[in-house]
Amino acid sequence: MASNIDIQKKCEWCGKLFIAHKTSTRCCSHRCANLAYKERTRQKRVSEFQTMVNQQIEKEDCIDKDFFTPSEAAKYIGISRATFYRYLETNLIKSVQLKRKTIIRKRDIEALFDNASPYKKHLPRSKQSITDFYTTAEIKEKFGVKESWIYEIAKEHNIPRIFNRGRTYWSKKHIDSYFAKKAPDASITEWYSVAELQEKFGMTLSAIYTFVYKNVIPKRKEGKMVYYSKKHFDIAKGIATPEEPQYYTIPEAMEKYNLTRDQLYHYVKYHNITRIKVGKYTKILRSELDKFFEPPKIE
Question: Would the pTM of this model clear 0.70, i.e. be above it?
């Protein structure tokens, strides 16, 4: 579809003035466009080749040296600078720190190969066959869910299934794993039923469902009955005081101590600060992290 606009432009290849109908047009003719494209391609190849030559020259310059900086040593081995620094942190490669400069001896790098372990080929893991299954009826009876819900969750979480003799069988291991993750916290011992909430707070069903969704109230399901955590519901309603949490989430720790995620994980890893995994989230023990960042004192 032709454009109604007229733009005066200068041809990228021959320099001739021409009228273009699109802002993206760069040349006055198809011939000039082809020639300009070939020139750009040639310049790109020349640039890539020059970069490769410069890298080779730098590497050859390193060969004649007895001492390297981390950047030079990384180029000498053929790995990234970040990877080389990880080797320095684990003391795999010896180094000397002189004020703000780190020096690595060439002989120490070559010594890594003197007592190197024999190469081991990593074999791919063999897949284990699935032999234990639930039928759809067994899942419905055991976990109190609808058939349509089973198919929806199985599709979302890639739960293996097989159809045999008119029945659908679901991997028992994957189903149990899914419901184990959804199981309520074992520390919660007191629960409200929906009827108790309606009576105590005078809330309608829709008000209860909206409230628990907005405040992420833990729930437990038994057949058709749904129960909600009494402690969490009372805290959300303001009639109970929340307990002091024992763990920081990653964003909380980053905000409190003004750290990046990498810095925080570095301190936690190299100072053995206790951390736990809650679902897909990592939490850090509050007391140990606070103690680590306490100001130094002489007693």
Answer: no
